[in-house]
Amino acid sequence: MVFTSTKTISFKKTIHALPDAVLALLHDPKVLFAANPLIAGVIQDPSKPHTYTITDTLVVLGYFTTTTKYTAQLDLHKDGVDTAVVASLGTRLRGQYRIRAGENGTTVLEEDTAVEGFSLMMPYIIKTMAPAHEQILESVAAKAENRDSRHMKQLSRSEMSARIFLLAAVISACLVPCIYPYTTSLSLFAVIVSLLSLLGVRTKMGDPYSLFHLSLNKLGEDVPPKTEWLNMGYWQPCSLKLVQVTIKFREQKYNSLTSCCGLEALATKLIQAAQCKTGDSILDVGYGTGESVILLLSEPSIPRPSLIIGVTSLSSHHIRAEKRVERILAHQESKVDPPTRVLLHCADAVHQPGQASPSHPLGPSSTVKYNGILALDCAYHFNTRWTFLEQSLEKLASGGRIALADICFDPDILKRSRTAWAASKLFQLMPKANMVSPKDYVARMMEMGYVDVQLEDISQDVFPGFVRFLKAREIGWKVFGLTLEWYAGLGAKFIIVSGARV
Ligand SMILES: C[S@@+](CC[C@H](N)C(=O)[O-])C[C@H]1O[C@@H](n2cnc3c(N)ncnc32)[C@H](O)[C@@H]1O
């Protein structure tokens, strides 16, 4: 018909579970319906076994909600399930979910859904259903991998509260010093309010990160970000020049030394500390939305690994990273020989027996040995960093090296002042057990059995440059910059630490 059009949407997900386990979930209508964030109610048709009347809640004009009813039929197959939806205004969906065995005991789940509908409604239908269907795959994966999945709805609510808390922080931080300009303790109070607000965000979200870092990577008012770094950077002028040159090579333009190339410089420095070589197997821990994986895959001056396994805790980061990396690999296909294999996990970096997925890269059932393990600006969060380091040592190949861009503390501050403890607790930045001096950090690694342990204090090339970089950005980042400046002043040290397995 002239007024209808058809569009097909496709999604693919690698699941760290065996095909039988994934198939069992696909064949369970309760799981499938619960996985769709739009579905508000399901009634099974008593006369037709696999037919259901479903109620969806839809958001209209970005704010209002409405409900719509439609029928759905499931058709179970030996390698998946077909879905057929008949909805109002002539909307029809025909979906195919199929599984196949992937590498290393994984399962690849693919969805192809053909959508037919009223042409004028098509952009709305696709915009609404595409993220929901992507979430279905993520939820099935999370269930198969025995981990939490962050639901789209919960995520957007968390992002909303993050904005509200940040706004409260900004207003308090700006207003208090204006009303009482001569009272330094009140300025400090303003900073504390900011910290408390950020703590509020953290408690709501369970992880201080979201996708806010995209704006950190902006190259200018009208230039969208091309990278997605989420670290404090390395702002030594000579490294920045080097990174600027390599970034230009990757066809990106940076205007000044306060551009975000410092964020990439920290990643480059960490990779150098891990002494990576061509053909290595690399474990990238806390990979955020995948920029470090992309750097390993595409930066000509970095030795290209043969295998990259990643593990990060936030599901929204994991989903985004998988897509970004898939695009890079598809683009490189046939140009790079042999291609690098990439497997990205969504899990806590520390393997918790009985909780994390059986394919956890640091778990006992994983047989991969790594030549290099990278933890870029994340290990201070781990519960605890010491368990992570012990598990990592087990998984390093002989001669393999771990490198961490991490935070520790001035020993005098740890002895004398409780403010650093209080601030770290307030931020929920790190468990108390992770708060050590550089000397104790090295000693603990050596006790575990690491050799050739090297620690470099790069605080002066991290905090001042990052604070300058933040202060040159929007108000929310300025407040964060002030807070970080205060925290660094308490005796925090930014270090690059590395050690090898004999
Ligand atoms: C500061 S960001 C660094 C991201 C990335 N390495 C980069 O430089 O762009 C810290 C990352 O570690 C992740 N993370 C925090 N705690 C974690 C944990 N316990 N296990 C795994 N990842 C964790 C966060 O979600 C976030 O992606």
UniProtKB/TrEMBL annotation:
Tell me which residues make up the DUF7053 domain.
Answer: 19-145
Name the InterPro entries for this protein: DUF7053, SAM-dependent_MTases_sf
* Keyword terms, alphabetized: Membrane, Transmembrane, Transmembrane helix
Methyltransferase keyword on record: no
Q: Any stretches that span the bilayer, and where are they?
A: 160-180
- Give the protein name, as stated in the record: DUF7053 domain-containing protein
Source organism: Asterophora parasitica
